[in-house]
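hey m, so remember when u said the tokens were messed up on ur end? i reran from scratch. heres the input so u can diff it against urs
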Amino acid sequence: MFTVYVIESAERKYRYVGITNNLERRLKEHNLGSNKTTSPYKPFILKYTESFDSRLEARKREMFFKSGEGRELLNNLLS
């Protein structure tokens, strides 16, 4: 099982979309600053998830959320 997740910084205007097979571990890594990309924006709040049976399906959805149309959909879902 793979999860596409959206997290937002609790203190700054920053949103991150990622994929993982262990959501709890991944969120902990983000909030501990283990990820160089997201470290300056911690702490994070989990805002949205979708689960998929295959990594390929999850990756396609992650890439969609990183597109202009996907960002617009996320803005509507999370507002």
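this time it looks ok to me. The chain has three helices and three strands. if urs says something different then somethings off w ur setup not the seq
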